[in-house]
Specification:
Blueprint: E1 2-3, E2 25-29, E3 34-36, E4 40-48, E5 55-66, E6 82-88, E7 94-101, E8 117-123, E9 133-142, E10 148-158, E11 163-177, E12 196-199, E13 206-217, E14 229-235, E15 238-245, E16 278-281, E17 290-297, E18 306-320, E19 326-333, E20 351-356, E21 362-371, E22 377-385, E23 390-394, H1 400-403, E24 411-420, E25 432-437, E26 447-452, E27 467-473, E28 478-482, E29 490-495, E30 500-508, E31 526-531, E32 556-563, E33 579-583, E34 590-596, E35 603-608, E36 614-620, E37 624-628, E38 635-643, E39 650-657
Antiparallel strand pairs: 1-16, 2-10, 3-10, 4-9, 5-8, 5-10, 6-7, 6-9, 11-18, 12-17, 13-16, 13-18, 14-15, 14-17, 19-20, 20-23, 21-22, 21-24, 24-25, 26-29, 26-31, 27-28, 27-30, 30-32, 33-34, 34-37, 35-36, 35-38, 38-39
Amino acid sequence: MRKVIYLICALLVFNFASRAAAGDTTKVQAHYDVQMPGYGNYDTTITFPAPGTTYRKIYMVFTLGKYVCPGSPTYCGDWDYTVDNYLMTPGGDTLDLGRLITPYANAGAPRTPWTWKQHYVYDLTDYAGVLHGPATIRTAYSGYSGGFTTNIQFIFIEGTPDRDVISVNRLWHGYRTYGDTTHHDSNNINVFLPYKNFTAPAGTQAAELKYVVSGHGSDVNQCCEFMPHTYSVYLNSAKVDSYYIWRSDCGRNELWPQSGTWIYERGNWCPGNMVYPNFHKLPGVIAGVPVNVDIQFEPYAGNGGGGYGFEGALFFYKGMNKTLDASIDWIIAPTNDENFFRENPICGSPKIHLKNTGATAITSITFHYGVSGYSMIDYTWTGYLASLAGTDITLPLLPELSTLAGTTGNYTFVSTITAVNGTADDDATNNTMTSQFTMAPVWPTPFRIVFRANHAVVASGSTTSETSWAIYDVNNTVVAQHVGATRDSLYIDTIILPAGLYRLAISDSGCDGLYWWANAAAGAGFISVRQYATNLTIPMHGYSYSGTYGHDFGCGYSQYFYTGDQFVGVNNVTAGTLSVEAYPNPARDVVRVELTGTEQIDGSLQLIDALGRVVYETPCTGATTNISVAGYASGAYTLRYTERAHPENKLITRLVIAN
């Protein structure tokens, strides 16, 4: 089984000039920011290029956006709905080109304002035989509220594909309940997945089954959204493959945080992600061979409350068009592509994804790479990469990612394949890729890490927090860490580092961050990085320190940074906004109040009860103030800081006292 993740540098709005010679790329626009107010089909008619031209790559770029729903409904662009994009041709072909699940995208979340857009990229090269002439493109939106828009563009890059497709055949499609034993076989999902018979056409040298499946709904066992199952693939009555229908990485979603239950593991999908197709090789299929193919789900008895949406297609292929060839499919880092948000910005070593697009196994690849306008580096990777296999490659340290750290503006990263197995490969048009990116920040040293563990623990009966942090140097060696923290406890660590490249990694074994609004039982923990001298908060890429989504990062978080005395001119990091924090929260004895984002503190702190009465007041002239709350009744209070010189300037935060 081959699983392909179709992601490339989407934020370049597909600057394909970086990947193909000028003039050989055709773009066809389908839907253009079409509003989807509710459940239904949204169709548009387009004309693809005429047949006769071969294409090295064909991509569908699906851009999901938002609009303000009229009438202020309860949900607007704020729920996980299924979206399928279909091709319908005059000849009667209907094929599912790609499925995705919308994110929980409330406009109040930091990553999904009303102007938010997200690019999803599908490789449709194997559909070249049907992507010509007039056609209808349908976006099928299974949403019961509006707020999302659809934008679809097709990109045709001329050249030679990896292999030619003889035919693509739609097999099974639709949604069926799973586990319903009350109607005998009438609701058995396998009844709706009968054997399909074909004879491999002339020229066939390989065949693959593409199967898209996602679980939705819930029965007494939470099947099928929250319960995994397995299906098996049969060729001529013999089992040739199987697949475990589950996504366990939703808490590492690139689009985070979201305004719903985005971290939960699910039946082969995550909110805000594509539903990745599974490719199953059908061994021994060549021209003239009878093909009898089937999908069968494992036996399961529930009450039919949930089910699976599925789409199957059978592809017959000719042989490989290139003998020795490698292709750079995408740049993981450095890039501004939102599909690699967690991995960037970096300092140190670039990372790319590469595919063997020839018939010959690859044992070495030489790269020429660097930041445009600066010195380039040559590096030869060695290993083993079979035909049509892909791999991530980490390139050696790129000095400019360090020497330019802390500077602003966009830079261009360039990576080129110059040799494969010691010689030029067969297709130079897929050897170069570029990406736009920003530099990692410079942090002042020393700095402090203020860490309060929440109530969640590594195991039942333990008092050890499930959250920890560590700082790694350029050799991936831990140079500072805090592991084994006690739950509900506060730790303040001062970090002094020599000049160099580092990565701060926060890990949470429960995959629910230090605070997640949907898990009140875990309490509210936090972590912040602060300048040592001023206590100003040092911002981290995409990380929210406060508010509803503060410290909501799922399974983990990484921040690359550089530190060194030679960067005195650029290491003045500011918080950007003023804030007041109180911890522990809830509090029982003493609460610590910290003001960040200002170096001039002169005012007063007030503790206000739920009735609006000031129950405590004290002068505040420093960044930190301790208040005893042991004598106050349990309940919700407000802490308010007021500037003496400008009483109209106030900072407030909520405090819960639990005595």
